[in-house]
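Deadline looming. Please check this record:
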Amino acid sequence: MIEAQLYAALSALAGGRVFPLVAPHGTANPYLVYSVPSHGSDDALAGMGARRAAVQLDAYAGSLADAKALVADALAALDPFDPGELMELQEYEPDTGLYRATAEVAIWT
């Protein structure tokens, strides 16, 4: 299961504040949330081939620089998975007062 592998690779980041899908209310920042919003597969003559997982990493912090640094650390931690198709986004969330840096990558499993 890719989610368990992702947690194992990412769990040491942000002082251990790494969560699947959503962080608990009141979590201290910085923290990292990861998700696998979609799975797909290559077609092969004998059925499904390699599986592709889209992985989203969301780093939350009090500054954009800290959020971007955390998402960069998360990408480095995923390097053994040989991720590709990188897309990065940043935004400020006025409701929480936190900056978010997002990276989306594809991992073939």
